[in-house]
Write a structure and sequence with these properties.
Layout: E1 7-14, E2 17-22, E3 25-30, H1 34-45, E4 49-53, H2 62-71, E5 76-79, H3 84-103, H4 114-134, E6 139-144, H5 151-157, E7 164-167, H6 175-178, H7 184-191, E8 196-199, H8 202-215, E9 220-223, E10 228-232, E11 235-241, H9 248-256, H10 258-271, E12 275-282, H11 289-302, E13 310-317, H12 324-344, E14 352-356, H13 361-370, E15 373-376, H14 385-393, E16 400-404, H15 410-413, E17 418-420, H16 425-436, H17 440-456, H18 459-467, H19 483-488
Parallel strand pairs: 1-4, 1-6, 4-5, 6-7, 7-8, 8-11, 12-13, 12-15, 13-14, 15-16, 16-17
Antiparallel strand pairs: 2-3, 9-10, 10-11
The structure holds GDP-alpha-D-glucose.
């Protein structure tokens, strides 16, 4: 199924805008992010639409603000409104307390309730009703992510016959984890009502196929070189893997801007450390920030020549701060920073600069440029765009990327990055030391590999891969190893 002559209809939990209040006045502004950048050209060209929750409280005049906003655009944003109770149960509850931790292999954070499952069903139904209402025969429907797993199935129940595309931004867990979910059969069967499902990596797709094998044995699985197809209930679902990426040029060009160079220079001058290491994440237990702090502490213990010469800048962007597990993570980070800093700080130098805030674009690029090392150590991550952004912004071609083997990005970046197991503090500390002592020649060689990989497989290519129906059009380079299909059969 390809997009020619069709209008793109994107559906995601959040609309690509932020609605906020200043005093008595409500405002709306576009939000930035990989998905918007990726899809904006196609949705604009096809005069399509984007459906989702505007992310504001039910009291905000979202419909009015969006009507105004749509007047200046070639595509329409259509809001779906969610009650306070649904925000608690559908969003914080089933989406973020059940699916999010389970799909990230973090059973310790996993909980579920029947009530929240019902709310998830109800909100998915409302998304489906709205989609069914606004689509036309020439709509090309592309639904995104774990909040909306059931929407395809509910659309089918409503009689919608369009070709239904779905992309999962987070990992898909192995069978031994997935089977913990009380509604495992319902969810898996519902997902198979999509016609085309995209995963981030071959291993996510492999996990999905294994779950089908054990939980829906009557489904027929066929695989050849690049296609995986599941036949179930008189329906065919194509499975592909499409690593999401970034707009390389935007970061590469942005990194060259005068104000970014100034921000980078200012940061380095002020922090009084020869080498800066960057950590940049949303507040989330999947990102492995406490382990990163502990590995950094181990570095200072084990390699005394790093004391006074290397600092970790950790930016944590506030996220889901009302959820108890996230509040606890914030407290743990505060405590750890205090403990490590009080243990190692010297006059004019502190080991960890930790900030709980969001950076603006110039500061973000300034941090990417200023830091000699990026320490990206999620316990599990669908892809991790920060890793790719760091490489694209490293215009001096000499940064070192240390990357968790459990990030989706590892499948593409392992040749140039120093790969680590974030649970293993000792070897993560060793990897930081290796980056700290690495010659300029090796740094350049590695960063060149990373930058050319990110440039070649950028976000425009991701959209093209997904939207072109023919799996044959997927590149035949190392990231689409043909052996994967054989392993899954
Ligand atoms: C999900 C999956 C998958 C971060 N701090 C600031 C800032 N950011 C921007 C980065 C980057 C984005 O946020 C974070 O993207 P990630 O990919 O790292 O993580 P998630 O938000 O968890 O996204 C993930 C992704 O979906 C796409 O499929 O890769 O695995 O979990 O773009 O630049 N931006 C600004 N200030 C900050 O302080 N302006």
């Amino acid at each position: 199924m390809c997009l020619s002559n069709k209008k793109l209809v994107v559906v995601s939990n959040r609309l690509p805008v932020a609605i906020y209040q200043e005093g008595d006045q409500w405002h709306i502004k576009p939000s930035t992010g990989g998905l918007v950048t990726a899809l904006a050209p196609t949705i604009t060209r096809t005069k399509g639409m984007w459906l989702g929750w505007p992310g504001c409280s039910p009291d905000a005049p979202a419909a009015k603000l969006l009507t105004e906003y749509n007047k200046n655009r070639d595509y329409r944003l259509i809001p779906i409104l969610i009650t306070r109770e649904e925000i608690e149960k559908f969003y914080f509850g089933f989406s973020n307390n059940t699916i999010w931790p389970l799909f990230h292999d973090l059973l310790g954070h996993f909980s579920f309730s029947l009530d929240e499952w019902h709310s998830y069903l109800e909100v998915n139904r409302r998304f489906a009703e709205l989609i069914a209402d606004v689509i036309r025969p020439d709509s090309f429907i592309w639904i995104h992510d774990y909040h909306l797993l059931l929407v395809g199935h509910l659309l089918r129940e409503m009689g919608v016959r369009h070709y239904l595309n779905f992309f999962l931004h987070i990992p898909f867990p192995g069978y031994d984890l997935y089977r913990r979910l009380p509604w495992k059969h319902e969810i898996l069967k519902a997902i198979l009502d999509y016609d085309h499902i995209g995963f981030q990596t071959p291993s996510d797709r492999r996990n999905f196929i294994q779950c089908i094998k054990w939980l829906i044995p009557e489904a027929v699985r066929t695989m050849n070189k690049r296609q995986s197809i599941i036949y179930y209930n008189h329906h065919r679902t194509k499975l592909g893997y499409y690593p999401i990426s970034i707009d390389f040029n935007e970061f590469n060009e942005g990194g060259k801007a005068r104000e970014v160079a100034d921000a980078a220079w200012f940061l380095h001058e002020n922090l009084n450390s020869r080498i800066l290491v960057l950590g940049l994440d949303r507040l989330d237990y999947t990102k492995g920030i406490p382990n990163r702090f502990l590995a950094f502490e181990r570095l200072l213990e084990k390699y005394p020549d790093t004391i006074g010469n290397i600092s970790l800048i950790q930016i944590v962007v506030p996220s889901r701060t009302k959820v108890p597990d996230y509040m606890k993570l914030k407290t743990d980070l505060d405590t750890l920073t205090g403990r490590i800093n009080s243990r190692f700080s010297q006059h004019g130098w502190v080991p960890i600069h930790y900030q709980f805030r969001e950076l603006d674009r110039t500061q973000l690029l300034g941090h990417y440029r200023a830091c000699e090392i990026a320490l990206i150590t999620p316990l599990r991550d669908g892809m991790n765009l920060v890793a790719k952004e760091y490489c694209a912004s490293s215009i001096d071609n000499n940064g070192v990327l240390i990357l968790s083997e459990f990030a989706g990005a590892a499948a593409q970046l392992s040749r140039g990055a120093l790969m680590v197991n974030p649970y293993d503090l000792e070897s993560t500390a060793d990897a930081i030391y290796r980056a700290f002592t690495m010659t300029l020649e090796e740094r350049r060689r590695r960063m060149k590999i990373l930058r050319s990989e990110v440039k070649r497989n950028d976000v425009a290519r991701w959209v093209n891969w997904f939207l072109s129906s023919e799996f044959n059009s997927l590149p035949s380079d190392g990231y689409f190893p043909e052996t994967i299909d054989r392993q899954t059969s």
